[in-house]
Specification:
The chain is α/β, with parallel strands linked by helices and about 400 residues long. The protein has two domains: about 240 residues, 3-Layer(aba) Sandwich (Rossmann fold), CATH 3.40.50; about 100 residues, Rossmann fold. About 35% of the residues lie in helices and about 15% in strands. The chain is built from twelve helices and 13 strands. The strands form two sheets. Strands 11-9-8-7-10-2-1-13-12 form a nine-stranded mixed sheet, with helices on both faces. Strands 5-4-3-6 form a four-stranded parallel sheet, with helices on both faces. Helix 1 crosses helix 2 and helix 1 crosses helix 6. The radius of gyration is 19 Å and the shape is globular.
Length: about 400
Amino acid sequence: MITRDDVLAAHSRIRAHIRRTPTVQVAAPSTPLWIKCEFMQYTGCFKARGALNRVMAAQELGELDPQVGIVAASGGNAGLANAYAAARVGVPATVFVPETAPPVKVARILAYGAEVRRVGTEYAEAYTAAIDFAEQSGAVFCHAYDQIEVAAGAGTLVDETIDDEPSIETVIVAVGGGGLLAGVLAGLDGRAQVVAVEPTAAPTLNAALRAGTPVDVSVSGIAADSLGASRVGKIAFDVARRFGVESVLVDDSAIISAREQLWNEYRIVAEHGAAAAYAALSSGVYAPSRDERVAVLISGANTAPATLATGGSRSGRAGNLGVSVPPSLGTNASGASGGIHVSSADQNHHCVEPGLSRSRNAGRKTATRPSTSIGSDNARNVACSPAASASGPAMISPSGPAA
């Protein structure tokens, strides 16, 4: 069972090896709103936290053979995160990927110094091969989401968020396999409510809450590359039942619209899975009470920025946050998206860490918080500086001046 103590231990362990990503307040007409800019994390995704915690914890326990290293199965963000973690610690990494894995992500995994093995056409085949490799070689197996160390590492970001803005009442998080959700719930330990957002085409948590146990679901849709687990993890399901979450679903049109809005208004390049969290607000599927203080976790930026110019229609609507967008830059015409509520008791973003070999960048200092009040275009320039520092979260105004 994951607890807040696991998250605190993880933060102590990995603090010197991650960026403390900024929490910025954004202008919204009726709801005080903050964005946790985790898309700035090394590898361009929150998963670097969990991978580091898993690898470093295994090292502390004497389980990590420095000659054999680690093994993971993923053609996406988890593969990048584990390759990065192994490079940071200085051990080999073997990453099994399906033959259908995006070449650009495979190239980045290789750039971190990992060995890539292509097996089968589906993730399940790569996963089985990775398990077999771990058993035969003695490599430490690093799950994409369903291990205590992985979830606890992911949860370290929410302590930073609450430390930046203690008044936050609600945290909105996208869910795939549930590692981030589990870590956030454990890290908060009841200090704020959590809204779990999933695509309608991959409703793993929603289906589990309805069934009373994790169940397999079919997976498709625009966010399947990052929110494509076919079953929510047991750790996430258990902690969701323990603390209680509100589960909401957003459709592809809402995700596309939210992703475009993040770019048009704040110059945030978010992958579709990360934009799903924001879609809960912009589509109206989750409607905060007036003056409810909300934080949205934007957890990854491993996407092709060129697609921002082609996704969605050009209606000029920007969802329900009251932001006016010129018709030429507008978001999806559908506006609000229907949602289901369940209550329970690649080209990559310019901010991501460049290729890291096993011999480089050990002991890099972590980032601290920016304090400058910034407009939408120069927000990117402040946020992308890992050395920015301050005493509180920044403020982004959609109507602010260009840099």
